[in-house]
Design goal:
The chain has 505 residues and is an alpha+beta fold. The chain has two domains: 360 residues, no CATH class; 138 residues, Topoisomerase I, Chain A, domain 4 (Orthogonal Bundle), CATH 1.10.132. Helices cover 39% and strands 16% of the residues. The strands form seven sheets. Strands 5-11-10 form a three-stranded antiparallel sheet. A hairpin with a 2-residue loop joins strand 16 and strand 17.
Length: 505
């Protein structure tokens, strides 16, 4: 056996090289601020894995303290694999395939194996044209590159064709495992500190637990061909694996082999990603009648409108996206990350981090925030519609009656650019209004937001004019009428500010 994560310093942070228990001890001291080898798309998988593992290990030993002693962490982690005194489930390479290795389940005889030369070829990222991340370039890979790839694959992957099943924590094989959470910040402009974030999530999850309630780690369990584990045998916070993979020694380095399975590792199709039966730690849940499902990002992004819908609409917010009772004394960041997935491919990694000032956290997406934000959404729509109407009129040669679908389609690029501007300004404007105690101050903040929207719409209108098709003879009239239509719509949106604020007072 080679590369024991419990005893060897295989993991690098900006605070040095660590074993897995050593990493948790250093993170408990708040000393880890970055993981240099971590690729951006691996961050949610790595964070959730470390949080789940620490929570399960502490729960297995009945502890509630984040120890700064790596020996205590080693004991806690071994408590999760008591049936394996040789530490096989913590080694990267275990030649006997009937035994587990780290995130590598035991394999039955008779499987066909194919070679995987590099960790990035093993990782879950699949792109249609090899654009997002180039495949098979990590030829000089260290053991930690394989560790991070295994975590990404085994805890985040979807359906990849016959015999390649996805994880239980997603709503269908072409969905994704979303993460929506709050992370503590030192100040509103500071980057997220992974140690503080990890400690916060572990402590909050431990508040809801009272001992293990089933299998905690899936990879040490036997995996007979054609058999799946039922959810009722698993702890709600279990760490899963979804693929048959084995790492092997190759010269001075490592390589991987993978095979297929005749059934998913966990029988969870009917769960539609909702595993815990209570508020999910990181996944937004939509309840439809008697059924519930987790978020499928699809080809969307975490826009201001999407986040507002997840936090204030019909979706049930994840537990770790809710501020705790003692978390109103420091700024935090709302972190939204997931893969935009299609059929056996990903359309890119989506990530959005929104700083939340501490003065806003107490009313974080409560009734008052909703009351303030909903008129803002209406104003964005009014300004966006005015921009669309003005450009469509130019495309229609200035003829009001002639405007049709093709003319409105000409406005789409400018409208999309405008909405990207809104995406950057919506939450700061919302925070400004929430921090305004008096109606006059709130109206002033609201008016400033409307003016920003109008200026952005006018800039996009002028920028789009040269590319908007229009007969040369009719262009002067078309542009004049288009500007009039735009400004009339903007004026109407601005006039509603005082009226709406009076209603909300």
């Amino acid at each position: 056996m080679k590369h024991n994560l419990l005893t060897e310093p295989l993991l690098q942070s900006d605070a040095g090289w660590h074993s897995l228990p050593g990493l948790m001890a250093v993170m408990a001291r708040g000393k880890v601020a970055a993981f240099p080898a971590l690729r951006p798309h691996q961050r949610p998988a790595w964070h959730m894995f470390l949080v789940q593992l620490a929570t399960l290990a502490l729960d297995a030993t009945g502890s509630r303290e984040l120890s700064e002693d790596k020996a205590i962490w080693a004991t806690a982690l071994r408590a999760l694999t008591q049936d394996h005194p040789d530490d096989a489930p913590w080694h990267l390479v275990v030649p006997d395939r009937s035994k587990p290795a780290f995130l590598q389940p035991p394999a039955p005889d008779g499987l066909n194996w194919s070679d995987v030369p590099t960790p990035d070829a093993l990782d879950m990222v699949i792109t249609a044209r090899n654009h997002d991340l180039k495949a098979r370039i990590a030829r000089q890979a260290a053991p930690q590159d394989w560790i991070l790839a295994l975590v990404s694959l085994q805890t985040m992957e979807g359906f990849g064709g016959a015999g390649n099943y996805g994880i239980a924590r997603m709503n269908g094989g072409s969905s994704s495992r979303p993460m929506l959470a709050l992370a503590p910040l030192d100040d509103a402009a500071a980057p997220i500190n992974p140690s503080c974030w990890w400690a916060r999530d572990v402590k909050r999850l431990l508040e809801r637990r009272d001992g293990l309630r089933g299998i905690a780690l899936v990879w040490p369990e036997p995996w007979p061909e054609g058999r799946s584990l039922s959810l009722d045998r698993l702890d709600p916070l279990f760490i899963e694996v979804c693929r048959r993979v084995r790492l092997v020694a190759q010269g001075d380095g490592l390589a991987a082999q993978r095979s297929t399975s005749k059934a998913a590792r966990i029988a969870a199709k009917e769960a539609r990603g909702v595993i815990s039966g209570e508020s999910e730690p990181w996944a937004p849940v939509l309840v439809e009648g008697s059924a519930a499902k987790t978020l499928t990002l699809g080809e969307q992004d975490f826009t201001y409108a999407m986040l507002f819908k997840l936090l204030c609409g019909d979706w049930k917010r994840p537990y770790l996206a809710e501020p705790g009772p003692d978390e109103t004394f420091q700024p935090m960041a709302l972190v939204a990350e997931a893969f935009s997935r299609g059929n056996s491919k990903t359309d890119g990694f989506r990530s959005r981090v929104v700083p939340v000032p501490k003065r806003v956290l107490k009313q974080f997406f409560g009734p008052r925030a909703v009351k303030v934000a909903e008129p803002m959404l209406e104003d964005v729509k009014a300004v966006s519609d005015a921009l669309r109407s003005g450009l469509a009129l130019v495309s229609a040669q200035g003829d009001y009656e002639r405007r049709g679908k093709e003319d409105y389609a000409q406005a789409a690029p400018a409208r999309d650019a405008f909405l990207r501007f809104v995406d950057q300004r919506f939450f700061p404007a919302l925070w400004a209004q929430l921090q305004a105690e008096e109606l006059e101050a709130r109206t002033k903040a609201r008016s400033a937001f409307i003016r920003e929207l109008c200026q952005a719409a006018e800039a996009e209108f002028e920028g789009a004019l040269p590319a908007t098709p229009c007969a040369r003879l009719m262009r002067p009239r078309a542009e004049l009428r288009g500007r009039r239509a735009l400004r009339a719509g903007l004026r109407k949106a601005m006039e509603k500010v005082g009226e709406k604020e009076a209603e909300n007072a």
